[in-house]
Amino acid sequence: KLPNNAIAGAEDLAEDCGPDCNVVITSGARQPGNPVAPGEHGTGKPVFDLGKDPGLDNYISDNASRQWTDNSGTHYIMPNGDEYLDENYGNTGGTAPHWHVRINADHMKTA
C-alpha cells in the first residue's frame, strides 16, 4: 500500500499537469522479494512508477528546479522536493521505459 503522501503526490501531479497528461501508476508497493528495485519500492514507501507519456514528460522536464543524469537515467527534482527519474534508456533491468517517482516525505502542494 502506498502512503498518503504518495497518493497526494500522484493526484497533485495529475491536477497540475492537466488534460494534456496521462498520469498512470504502473507499479507501487511491490511484494517482498521482488528483484526489481528491492530497496526502493515497498509497503509504506512513497515510491511508485508512472507510465511514459509525452505531455507528462514535457511537464516534468519544464517544471523541474534542477536535474542531472547518472547511470540510472535523468533525475528531475520538482520545487516541492518530489523526484522523478526518467528510466528511459537501454538498460532498465528488463523493464519498459518509465518514470520512477520518489515523493518527498513532507509532500505539500506548491502554488
List keywords for this structure.
6 strands; 22% helix; alpha+beta; 2 helices; 111 residues
The span between the termini is: 28 Å
Gross morphology: globular
Number of strands: 6
Radius of gyration: 13 Å
Spans with pLDDT under 50 lasting ≥5 residues? none
Query: What's the overall average pLDDT, rounded?
Result: 79
The percent range for helix content is 10-25%
The proportion of residues in beta strands is 25-35%
Quick rundown:
With 111 residues, this protein is an alpha+beta fold.
Word description of this protein:
With 111 residues, this protein is an alpha+beta fold. Helices cover 22% and strands 25% of the residues. The protein contains 2 helices and 6 strands. The chain has a 6-stranded antiparallel sheet with strand order 1-2-6-5-4-3, with no helix packed on it. The longest helix has 14 residues, at 4-17. It is globular. 23% of the residues are buried. The mean pLDDT is 79.
Topology of this structure?
Elements: H1 4-17, E1 25-27, E2 47-51, H2 54-63, E3 66-70, E4 73-77, E5 83-87, E6 98-102
Antiparallel strand pairs: 1-2, 2-6, 3-4, 4-5, 5-6
